[in-house]
Amino acid sequence: MSSESLSPRQGGLLDPLIQSEAWQRFSHTGFYRFIVFPIGQIIVFIVAATVFLTALAYLVALLIPEPRPNIVLSDQISRQLPGMVISGISIGFVYAMVALGYTLVYGVLKFINFAHSEIFMFGSVIGFAFMNFLSSAGVLADWNPVVLVIATILISGIASGLLAVLIERVAYKPLRNAPRLVPLITAIGISFILQDVVRALASITINDFNLTYPTRNIAFFQNPIPVVIGTNEVRVRMTSIIIVIAAVIMLLALNYFVNGTKAGRGIRAISMDQATSGLMGIPVNLMISLTFFIGGAFGGAAGALFGLNVGNVTPYIGFIPGLKAFTAAVLGGIGNITGALLGGLLIGMIEAFLNGLLPYFPAIGIRYTDIITFGILIAVLIFRPSGLLGERVDEKV
Amino acid sequence: MKLNKVVGLLSSAALATALSVSLVAAQDGDNVIRIASQTPLSGPQSVLGVSMSNAVRLAIDELSQPLVDMGYTVEYVPFDDQATPEVGVSNAQQIVADPSILAVVGHLNSGVAIPSSEVYNENDLVMISPANTNPAITDRGYATVNRVCGRDDLQGPTGANYAAELGITSAYVLHDTTAYGQGVAEYFQDEAERLGITVLGFEGTEEASNFDAIIQPILAQSPELIYFGGIYSQTAAFLAQARAAGYEGLFMGPDGTDSTEFAAIAGDAAVGTLYTTVAGPASIYPNAAAFIESYTEAFGEGPQPFAAQSYDSTAIALQAIQAAIESTGGLPSRADVAAAVRATADYEGLTGTITFDANGDPEIGLYYVIEVVSGDPAEWSNNSIIATLEIPSPLTAAAMAEATPAS
């Protein structure tokens, strides 16, 4: 979410506005750069993805009006649209937050940290452990739900961030000058170790493998919120709303950190040229640790939010969301923060639309969702090998 | 570098120990009889798998005395198939390589049992399955493959029949894409359609945690019943999310639903769930009271579903080995044991009287429809049994059909 791409272009319709003195002054205020612009960007991405996918769905409905007897596809689309969009956005934000971890690390170290999917899992397990602790102490129901969610996100984010820093120090730092393939293999190894360590700890402490968030019997989290859109009533899950609000706040904070603070400038600098940054007095090791901490914290917080939404986590849940988030990072352009956000939202929305509409095509079905999603990724990479936003922004953070 | 050497030394030492242990194991004489089990001891389904393994251990402890009196030592070798076909097959190869293993009790998952039993059958090693309900298990006609439980081509229709009895007119069918889940879901679907229930969708998914998007088309069509052919770890998570998203219809599953973990994961959403099973909770079997008591005493918690069946499978194996020893006069070959198992007739087990038909199915299978009464896992054994059906295996039914016109 760098604000550089906002530089006024020539000959646009909005030129009179953009070139006006008032706008110029406004566009340089912190309020614009760190609040208005990033939120605007998120809204644009969501609206664009929704419009594009809805148009595509109606196009299919035009070509195949009745894919199954008694099923009018366009009716089903309009009935399911709000539900598909909301579930797409909420899982999309989860993917985006995890994708940030891949993309930040790639930005500074130029390698894919495949253990990041386990950081995500770790966050979800820490979120469970915290809530389970409150629940067994008998105070879970007394906590204000908002405070509870904030505390869970903070605890799992910080724990996961610290774990990511530890992993970097122990496993990746000694390999910093090795060929890029070596840390990649190490990352896969770390990933297995984390899965089994968490599994062992879960078995020792609570003797269970399926870790169920104790919030599942709290009305605040479970009761769907009815929203009337047009003629049909849609029920929105509270946890979906929590994911969206939490993710937007965290993305705003990240944008401020990367583009508005000295440490953020340091991270951007080492992502351009590590050696030179070191000569300029930037503490490279500290900046790399910081990058891992932020990436890990986002992954862990996303894990806790995901756990809250799905209700049940295991030591192995990280793999699939991790893979999707990695796909999102590549789709958006790996190394690019805005790209990770766009990629995550796109993958989430595409998945939601496919899962929502493929059941009407009995010959295809939702078992093809992943195949089609990855097919889209391949198609995009053929035409834009560096991802959707991979080239537009010069600096890779 | 130093560290590498230490690791290398350690691992070669570990390898050497493992080798010597297996050498010792292979050498220790003609009088050792081993019984192996293959169940998921780790992973999401380990709650059932560990309990099955415990029941096998208990059966060997309690019932091997006749063989001990004949001068044999009976040992138990548990294997962890991780509910994964590849792991099951590689374990199977390890099992057949040990000549002292004369019988296998397992598996939990049909998708694992089918390829693994190919290996057993090539080596004449008998498998007695406590839990595999896929028809292909016994329909291959192998002399070595038997089961003490019912079949999915009868279990799926049992569910559909009950749904029709309730007056359900529309259903949405999901499955987990495994041999077991997809198989039973297809049998449910066929019977449901035959009975006039509209099947609004038939979908398979490997998704394990996030069902948000999958629920949308189901909500849009509002079926009166969702049938999910799968295992509790997936189906319970699905049910909890479907309820949170506002689904208000019935939920039904096959015997993969049957675990305390279903209630642990789904919580209050589990209440009212219907499931069919070939294995009720051990408490419904009149002969199983002593088993529940000794199991609880030995392992500190009550048996899970399929534990009683595992106990019966082991008991049948022990009895057959004993019969084979008596008829051959020495340590029997694996083929002898397999033949003796197949000849099992009117065996009074915990779960009923078992007679194998020519394919290795029990001649009469018991099928139950059960309703979940509480979201508390501790209350799982109090689930109410709505219907109990005795259905003959296909071979037995065919024989009965032939016999009827003649008489």
Question: How would you sum up this structure, described in words?
Answer:
The complex is a heterodimer of chains A (397) and B (407). Chain A has 397 residues and is mainly alpha-helical. Helices cover 70% and strands 4% of the residues of chain A. Chain A has 15 helices and four strands. Chain A has helices at 15-19, 21-27, 30-63, 73-109, 116-136, 145-172, 181-206, 219-222, 238-260, 262-272, 274-279, 284-310, 319-332, 337-357, 369-383; strands at 211-212, 225-229, 232-236, 312-313. A two-stranded antiparallel ribbon of chain A has the order 1-4. The radius of gyration of chain A is 22 Å and the shape is globular. Chain A starts with 14 loop residues before the first helix and ends in a 14-residue tail after the last helix. Chain B has 407 residues and is an alpha/beta fold. Chain B folds into two domains: 29-150 and 284-362, Response regulator (Rossmann fold, 3-Layer(aba) Sandwich), CATH 3.40.50; 152-277 and 366-396, Rossmann fold (3-Layer(aba) Sandwich). The N and C termini of chain B lie far apart (84 Å). The relative contact order of chain B is 0.12. The chains are: A mainly alpha (397), B alpha/beta (407). At the A-B interface, helix 4, helix 12, strand 4 and helix 14 of A face strand 7, helix 9, helix 10 and helix 11 of B.
Secondary-structure map:
The complex is a heterodimer of chains A (397) and B (407).
Chain A (H helix, E strand, L loop, with lengths): L14 H5 L1 H7 L2 H34 L9 H37 L6 H21 L8 H28 L8 H26 L4 E2 L6 H4 L2 E5 L2 E5 L1 H23 L1 H11 L1 H6 L4 H27 L1 E2 L5 H14 L4 H21 L11 H15 L14
Helix pairs in contact in A: 3-4, 3-9, 3-14, 4-9, 4-12, 4-13, 4-14, 5-6, 5-7, 5-12, 5-13, 6-12, 9-10, 9-12, 10-12, 13-14, 14-15
Chain B lengths: L1 H26 L4 E8 L6 H18 L1 H5 L3 E8 L4 H13 L3 E6 L3 H13 L3 E4 L6 H4 L5 E3 L4 H14 L4 E6 L3 H16 L3 E7 L7 H10 L3 E5 L2 H13 L5 E4 L6 H7 L7 E4 L11 H11 L7 H22 L5 H9 L4 E3 L2 E3 L9 E8 L12 E9 L1 H13 L1
Parallel strand pairs in B: 1-2, 1-3, 3-4, 4-5, 6-7, 6-8, 8-9, 9-10
Antiparallel strand pairs in B: 10-13, 11-12, 13-14
